[in-house]
Write a structure and sequence with these properties.
The structure is a single chain. By secondary structure, this protein is α/β, with parallel strands linked by helices. Helix content is 30%, strand content 18%. It has four helices and five strands; from the N terminus they run ββββαβααα.
Length: 145
């Protein structure tokens, strides 16, 4: 497929490998431009339908994923697909859960787990990964490499 995001598009994070992943807030309007090929919605309740392929990871606001194994699997799928597709991760506000998921993708991409939150805060949003338990989740996230 090889159709990824524009590097300077709103919410796009460039991982060290060059993969581009967009984070966004589902409570805000869809940004202009192309839509994702695949999205992971991080919400406590079932998300609304979208016209692209999307997975739902049950993840209540300010908390952690309800199913850790499912979270690892979905985030790994997102990371793999981001090599040549437009992949998006999104929660209600686009910071806490989205930032945590982006930091986990950074770990999968080779960023040391203890540096991943700072990486995402520098390159995505300065307030990404909102709670201490979300930061701890990232530090413990397996790289899988």
């Amino acid at each position: 497929m090889t159709e990824t995001w524009e590097v300077d598009a709103p919410g796009v994070l460039r991982l060290p490998s060059g993969r581009l992943v967009r984070g966004r807030a589902l409570r805000r309007p869809l940004p202009p431009g192309p839509t994702p090929h695949y999205a992971v919605h991080l919400l406590g309740k079932e998300p609304p339908e979208v016209s692209w392929e999307a997975g739902w990871l049950r993840w209540p606001d300010f908390r952690l994923p309800s199913d850790d194994a499912e979270a690892r699997e979905m985030l790994r799928t997102a990371w793999l697909r981001a090599a040549d597709e437009r992949v998006e991760v999104a929660c209600g506000g686009g910071r806490g859960r989205t930032g945590t998921a982006l930091a986990c993708l950074a770990v999968l991409d080779g960023v040391p787990a203890d540096e991943a939150v700072a990486f995402v805060r520098r390159r995505y949003h300065h307030r990404a990964v909102e709670t201490p338990w979300q930061r701890r989740y990232v530090r413990r996230f397996p790289s899988g490499r």
